Amino acid sequence: MHLRRTGTVLGAAGLTLLTIPAPAHAAAVACGGGTSTGRVAVNGCISAQRGSAGRFPTRDITAHIRARNTATKGLNVSYEAYFRVVDGGHWEKIGSGRTYVGAGQTVGPLEVGSTTRVCGPVKVEIRVHARADGAAWSGWSPAATKQCQT
What we know:
- There is one protein chain.
- This protein is mainly beta.
- It is 11% helix and 57% strand.
- A hairpin with a 2-residue loop joins strand 1 and strand 2.
- The model is unreliable at 1-26 (pLDDT under 50).
């Protein structure tokens, strides 16, 4: 009897957790300029979510990609994302991936990778590039944000 009651309580608690809405402060995704590879147009996108490491404020900076296929057949698209602090930083690869984009369709923004930084009065940027099957790597599509803006 005791185990049945415990299972019922845990089950009810689990259902309660499932009904809690997503946080209202979820990060917005902003996309930068576009570039293309073959018949696929690519945009680099960025989001920054507030956080903390103890008493130090942080930002979780995430790179995204949006891809639009203008071809009459679907294509596989590979992509990579890099991150840097604009003043004096060097580019660091933060992620890569591959997705299928159907004919005439747009996918994304898809999360490519992220990095967490302690806040500072600096501008940060990401850049992404992509390659459709049979095409060369695209140019870079950048997006930027002030790291600890409110």
